[in-house]
Amino acid sequence: QVQLVESGGGLVQPGGSLSVSCAASGSFGSANVMGWYRQAPGKQRELVADINNGGITNYADSVKGRFTISRDNAKNTIYLQMNSLKPEDTAVYYCNLRVLRNWNWYVYWGQGTQVTVSS
User: Fold this and answer.
1) Which end of the chain is flanked by fewer CB atoms within 10 Å, N or C?
2) How far is Cα 41 from Cα 103, in angstroms, rounded to an integer?
3) Tens-digit pLDDT profile for residues 16-38
């Protein structure tokens, strides 16, 4: 059983920094991609950033240069460092794990953590 446990998040003022992390447990292979999505009220869930087990990263244009995703493969954990936060970054942030197994992608989600950017 794969589980994703998120930590971090909270309230921060505009221009501030915040970090979130996500630890994956259970059995899944090395062919995987972990990432963060976010969903603001009334909006669709969108990709923020992801990183594969080889360390290749992908960012949404809206966060490039401000957010940094990293991972520790030994701990099956990813980190998202968020700098220069804006009110529009306010959302529930969800950890995502995609695993390639037998030529099929399996997708897992964390429970979500709230990030609020407000003065």
Assistant:
1) N
2) 35
3) 999 999 999 998 887 899 999 99
